[in-house]
Amino acid sequence: MQPFLTRIALTTALAAVTAPGWPAGAQVEQTIIQRTETTTINSTNSQTDTRLLASMAEFGVRELALAEVALRRSKNPTVRQYASEVIAGHERNDKELQLLAADKNLTVPSTRKDLSARSQSKLRSLLDRMTVWSGERFDREYLNLAYSNQTEGLREYRAASAQAADADVRAYAERNLETLENQQAIAGAIAKRLAS
User: Fold this and answer.
1) Any idea what the CATH number is for the domain that residue 139 is in?
2) Is position 78 within any domain?
């Protein structure tokens, strides 16, 4: 059997559609995936690529969990808006990551219960820390946690963009680096404003 690898060109497009039964003008996000096939020398997923995909997925689950708590507990409109944007961004990115992993015949974490024991413990520790804070202290600490978690996530995405053997994995990581860098910069800027 000649090894081959299917290469995906993932293209996300937003299409405005009116769903039946929805109020006129209601918009639904639609993801369009274009597939192209190319032949390459290796059809197996490298252990490095598998680990990188799992790490990026676990990061996304952590980010969503932290942002969901912030959205529920923060009273600050700026922090709530930031948390909403983090959730929306990661939901889009994580859907794309799940599709990429599925195309590679891999399963990566998509919920808290899917996390490795180590990642579950880390997330539990972060969430436990968040429960003791309230008010402005909660907002500052959430933003600091988000910033440090994003530092770790950026490390994973940079590693994937540089080390992944699979071109699709590298492309996914490269496409999402700027979004993560922007999220981190915004978290830092809001935290500075709240501290002054």
Assistant:
1) 1.20.1260.10
2) yes
| Domain range for 137 | 45-195
Residue 185 carries which DSSP code? Answer: H
Q: Is residue 3 part of a domain?
A: no
The β-bridge partners of 10 are: 33
Provide the whole-model pTM: 0.74
> How many Cα atoms sit within 13 Å of 4 on the Cβ side?
9
Residue 37 falls within a domain, yes or no?
no
Q: Tell me the HSE value of 106 on the side-chain side, using a 13 A CA sphere.
A: 24
If one counts the domains in the chain, the total is 1
DSSP character string of 60-116: HHHHHHHHHHHHHH---HHHHHHHHHHHHHHHHHHHHHHHHHHHTT-----SGGGS-
Q: Tell me, yes or no, whether 36 lies in a domain.
A: no
Neighbours of 106 (CB within 10 A): 15
Mean pLDDT of the chain: 80
Q: What are the pLDDT digits (tens) for 77-134?
A: 999 999 999 999 999 999 999 999 999 999 999 999 999 899 999 999 999 999 899 9
